[in-house]
Amino acid sequence: MSTESFDLVSLGFEFHARDSDAAQKVFDALDSRGLIGYLGAPQLSDQLTYVPVDVATDKQGSLLMATEAGELAKHDLSTEKLTTELLEAAGAQALSLDGIIVAGTEVEVTGDGDAAETNSGNQVVAGTHVMASELVMSSLGQPGVWKVRQTQERLLAVREGEPVEIRLGQKHLRAIELKSSDGYIQLSVHASAKAFQLQDSNVFDYWMPTEDRPVPMAATGSEVAQLQGKLGAQLYAADSEELLELERFWPEAATGIVRLAKLRSLDGLRLFLKGLGLPEEMVDYMRGEPLADGFTELPRSLPAGLDLAVEEERAKAKGVMKLVYRTGWSPAALISSSLAVIGAGVLFNRWMKTSGKPGTGWRRTIMFFWYSDAGYYLAHGVRQVLKAKLKNR
Q1: Which of 56, 71, 173, 291 has the fewest Cβ atoms surrounding its Cβ within 10 A?
Q2: How far apart (Å, rounded) are the C-alpha atoms in residues 16 and 18?
Q3: Distance CA 19, CA 104 (A)
Q4: Average pLDDT of the chain, as a whole number
């Protein structure tokens, strides 16, 4: 039988209460009947265990099965009759076909007990032109903490605690974000070539399964194994339209994701990151491994986040902007220049008020930013002096 033409149906096995052996029971029920497909990660809660399965059919809807020789054949029983057998063999309370209960009785869930148990790791971000201040601002008021390691233009950040939605807005941004939950790794690609990123910086998402399990165990090269490979490619393929969009910003990432969608493994994910020049240990940190030395904790308040943003802008300043941001100035230079700017502001304000141009509203706005800028660098210089004195005590 050819493996070129096939279709899929989705089965869902419901078990009353928590059943850690449910996935194995479903596997055994499918395997004993030669059905071909993939088991997804089981979803467990106190009142319900749900095991999703996708199995192969031909184009007419007949279930396909594996023979002892590893070849393909049509199953003798109809899908409807086979579902009753599968329900009894797995010991489940209900079985759904494409979302509709076709055998058994649906498990009733009351109160908050239907909340599925989640097994989440850390949120990890790495890439070029990633600003630590943007991570701080994205997580204001949320539990958890960012820890970062930065070298030149590349930053690696690990969030311990609840993951948050991040928005990165720097020009030439190229970053990968990893999150893990419920048997999947969510890989998000952030990229931008714009000077100002007003929309979401996330241009691509791929959910890679970590607990999908092929049924049955087939010999490499057999018709069954070939069909399983094509089933997996169809079930876990990356969105083609999103890949075309990603190629505009980061073609190497688009190519890497196509390869990753075929491998669908942690080793494949490490190869994907390595190909983009990003640290492979992102995978370990996502899974909760202890951080290596060199990470620092980011602040969590709005004032600290704004202060960090100014520091980052100053650090990357070039040309005339180095003068504007007083990059590299000593504390004495910062204080004296700020006092000079404040004095000049008094004279300039007096001149505008006397001349009557611009109007009062514009004049006050100009002077607000004038004095704010001078006041910031005056405070920055004083802070450096006090810090040095406290350090020498």
Answers
A1: 71
A2: 7
A3: 17
A4: 84
- Go through the chain and tell me how many residues it has: 393
Q: What are phi and psi of 391, to 5 degrees?
A: -70, -30
The secondary element (H helix, E strand) that includes residue 104 is strand 100-104
Q: Give the predicted TM-score (pTM) of the model.
A: 0.74
pLDDT band at 77; cut points 50, 70, 90: confident
Name the token pair of 286.
């996502």
How far apart are alpha carbons 63 and 76 in whole angstroms?
9
Distance CA 393, CA 388 (A): 9
pLDDT for 196 beyond 60: no
Lowest-confidence region among 15-29, 108-122, 205-219: 108-122
Tell me which residue of 261, 262, 281, 259 sits closest to 270, measured CA to CA. 281
* Rounded distance between C-alpha atoms, residue 315 and residue 274, angstroms: 28
Half-sphere CA count of 251, side-chain side, radius 13 A: 1
- The amino acid occupying position 52 is P
319 has a pLDDT exceeding 80: no
Checking if the pLDDT of 24 tops 90, the result is: yes
Closest CA to 92 of 82, 105, 102, 80: 105
For residue 51, give the nearest of 225, 183, 206, 229 by alpha carbon. 183
Please answer whether residues 78 and 24 qualify as being in contact, where contact means their C-beta atoms are separated by less than 8 angstroms. Answer: no
**Helices of type H across 76-202:** 79-90, 132-138
Q: Please, what's the b/e burial string for 244-260 (b: 16 or more CB within 10 A of its CB; e: otherwise)?
A: eebeebbeebbebbeeb
